[in-house]
Structure formats: C-alpha cells, structure tokens
Amino acid sequence: MEGLVSGFGYAGSQSDNNYDVIIIGGGPAGASAAIYTARADLRTLVIDKGLTAGALGLTAKISNYPGVPGPINGAELIETMRAQAESFGATFITDKVVGVDLTSEPKMVMAGTNSYTAQAVILATGSMGRTGAIPGEVEFLGRGVSYCATCDGAFFRQQDVAVVGNNDEALEEALFLTKFAGKIHLISPTPELKARDHLVAEVAEHPKIELRLGTRLKQICGNGAVDSVRVQPRRGEEETLPVRGAFVYLQGGLPITDYLMGQVETAREGCLVVDREMQTRIPGVFAVGDLLCDHIKQAVIAAADGVVAAIAADKYINQRQSLRTDWK
C-alpha cells in the first residue's frame, strides 16, 4: 500500500462538470442555499457525504422548526429541503470532497469520483470533525488508512478491511467496498447504527460485511502498512482483526475544514471567518452554519445562513452592487 493517496487528476466533460455554484455539504445550510441558488437560475451542485453524516441528520426528534409541525427526525427534514431544491433544478450527489483550489478561475472542487468547477463555492460542512486520532491512524495514513472508499477502494481487491463508523457515510462506503474487498468488518462504536433504514438493511444482509456493534477501535497496527486493528467490544474481550485497510468515519465536534488545505482563513477556534454576506477573504467563497464561530447551533439559523450566502453568491456571479431579495 506504499504511496496510497487520493489523486486529483480526474477525467470528465468540462461542460458536464462546470457549475455556477458548488455547495459542499447538504445539511440545512447547504440545502437552503441550494433552494435559493437554483431558484436564481444558477446551475447548482451539492456534494454531501450522506444524510446522517451531519448533526441534523442524526437528530431523532425536531419539534421547533418553523412551518414544519413536529415531531420529525432530522433526516426527514433534510430530505424535504433537498427535494425542494431539486424541484428548482439543483443536483445532489453523495461523495466526499478531498481537496479544493479556491484561487483558480473557475474554482475547482475535487471529490472522490470526479472533479468539478464553479464560479462560486459555498462551504457548509458543519462541525463534526474529530479532536484526536486513533493510535496508528496518522502513522499509516496513505499506507492502509483512508477516509475515502471511493478514492482508494480499488487498492484493496480481495483483501479484508475495516470500516469504522455508524452513520450513512460509513455504511455507504462499506457497501461501496464490497465491489473490491474480500471481507469488510463494519465497526460501530454505538450499539445501534445511526443510518437510514434501507442502508442498515443492506449492510445486515450483505454476505461480505460483518457487523460489530458497540465496539471501539483502539489501535491501527502494522509494519510499514496496516496489517490489523485492535478492537474492544463493550461486553467482551479485546480482539485483533487482520485487515489491510482501515477506513475511518468517526465524528466529533470541530469544524470540518481539512479539505480546504489551509486556503481559507480560520479563527483560533478552527472556525471560518466571514463578512456579513457570509463571504470569506476569498471572493466568491462563502461559509455558513456550524463552520462559523458565532453560529448558534440551530437548524433554522443554519438555513438562514445558507440563504444569505446564496443571495450573495448570486450577487457575486452577476456582478451586482447589492443583494437581490427573492420574494417570488
């Protein structure tokens, strides 16, 4: 596995992959932004890791979202927002952004399966980034440790791998790996999977996937490359699983900005710095929702941020002097 990294050299039709606006993240901020950019006749692409990859998607009960009588779970609310955005022409894809070039013209966004360009980019990736790494995770990054099955799955043909996580993203990546891997150990830190029912059912029924619920990943081991992982079930003895790859999809509470590769200014807390129109220091690049320092973590506020950024993106693309409000 020496040199296992995700590359940025993707093929594809420039016209097919060129958009007016790319939104990274499909939670309440990203989906609301997509409603407004699509209604403004801007060709809009939303790249998202999965319905339950964000904080709202994991929320079991919501009763205080204006105009939506509750209770409703977060995934259902996001699906409603996305359907509304799609009705206006926005495109949603499930993928992971692995890098960006925000200073180029047009701006470029590199995902696991393709690259895309746009005049404006709205960052809406939330704040579920991890605070610390698993022992061995950094040491074997690129040598068996990966965060993107669609990028690196083909390196593991007929080999056993571990997928660590419990949400839509982790389950979708595990199912993708069944195309290549011999056996997949799906290690969930919680006793129940926090993913959509159809994904849970697919994972439970797939002969290549062995589900390990309520199990903690303690260490990723190897000698030059990954050769095993140490896991600890909640009720049971520690085990060592022989694997050649470890795909990690755990969550935390930090703003998710690693894919920006230091191109956007951050505050000391790791959140992004924006002006009153949600624009960063890079013209045409906007940030919303839980990526911001002063953001109150409520879905309705994230949605409002997305609307402000969308209207500002329309202003930027069309070189207007002032924001144009959509009252239609």
Fold blueprint:
Blueprint: H1 14-17, E1 18-24, H2 28-39, E2 44-48, H3 74-87, E3 91-94, E4 97-101, E5 107-111, E6 115-123, E7 145-146, H4 149-152, E8 160-164, H5 168-177, E9 183-187, H6 197-205, E10 209-212, E11 215-222, E12 226-233, E13 239-242, E14 245-248, E15 285-287, H7 299-317
Parallel strand pairs: 1-2, 1-6, 2-3, 6-15, 7-14, 8-9, 8-14, 9-10
Antiparallel strand pairs: 4-5, 5-6, 11-12, 12-13
Helix pairs in contact: 2-3, 2-7, 5-6
Walk me through the structure:
By secondary structure, the protein is α/β, with parallel strands linked by helices. The chain folds into two domains: 14-129 and 254-317, FAD/NAD(P)-binding domain, CATH 3.50.50.60; 145-248, FAD/NAD(P)-binding domain (3-Layer(bba) Sandwich), CATH 3.50.50.60. 22% of the residues lie in helices and 24% in strands. It contains seven helices and 15 strands. It has helices at 14-17, 28-39, 74-87, 149-152, 168-177, 197-205, 299-317; strands at 18-24, 44-48, 91-94, 97-101, 107-111, 115-123, 145-146, 160-164, 183-187, 209-212, 215-222, 226-233, 239-242, 245-248, 285-287. Strands 1, 2, 3, 4, 5, 6 and 15 form a seven-stranded mixed β-sheet that branches. Strands 7-14-8-9-10 form a five-stranded parallel β-sheet. The chain has a three-stranded antiparallel β-sheet with strand order 11-12-13, with no helix packed on it. A hairpin with a 5-residue loop joins strand 12 (226-233) and strand 13. Helix 2 (28-39) packs parallel to helix 3. The longest helix has 19 residues, at 299-317. It is globular and about 65 Å long.
